[in-house]
Request: fold
Amino acid sequence: MKIDLHIHTCFSDGVFTPEKIVDTAIDAGLNAIAITDHDNVLAYPIAVKYAEKIAKEAGNTPLEIIPGVEINTIYKDVEIHILGYFMNRDDSDFQEMLKMQQNARIAQTKEIIHLLSKKEGIHVSFDKIKSLVAEGGSIGRPHIAKAITLAGGTTSVMEAYSKYINNDSDVYVQRKTISPHDAIEIIYDAGGIPVFAHPFDVEDAENLIKEFMHFGLRGVEAYHRKHSPAMVEYYSTIAEKNGLIITGGSDFHAPNPNNGQIILGKNFIPEWIYDSLLKEKKQLDMAQ
Reply:
């Protein structure tokens, strides 16, 4: 069984539509995926409906799509991403968290637009940035960087990042976002499985994982395209030592022929990870 539990669409900072993700996943031979857009779950019902439609036409079993999300949080000025699986998407606290996150993204974007105009003479409209993400989706740094480039402020998106979209820039404003503790607790209380995403990106991840367990953290994303085999083993050991499940995924955003990341499911994710995720969900349901 082939799985990929970390995928982004055009509803956040991915480039593919939910339908294109489903097609690509099927072409890659995947059996189950999780769409984990940043701070929203809008792609999930679209992907499920499309997967069921094409499976019915072909007389096949639909691609399994697990409800997922990736919440961007800040703790002590460090950005920490929390993945969530199988939560009740209609839970009121969960929906309120997503709404708050979206409002924070909009406020950050408008502040950066203002500073770009005032300090750098680069005029970027909010509507232009908004047009770079699917309707209702999560505006983020990639969209701001692309809009700066399209406005002629830089010659490339990478240059926009290096000059303007970073904490050392005079025009960059950090997003006022939720804490990882609250995100974990809200996902857990909504019947979901909160997971520490790509721990390689976070200094002192091991101690933070232990701290977050007190708020309902239930897993660690040990398999990730940034993680070497040694890192996979290291984070898997941390998870096992603390009684947490292990998850993994490609963290797919866009095809990239330069580094070989051209299909979903690029990372090898053991089949037992899927089984342990389902087992954890059953145990969580019984406990709640």
Summary: The longest strand covers residues 64-75. The chain has ten helices and seven strands.
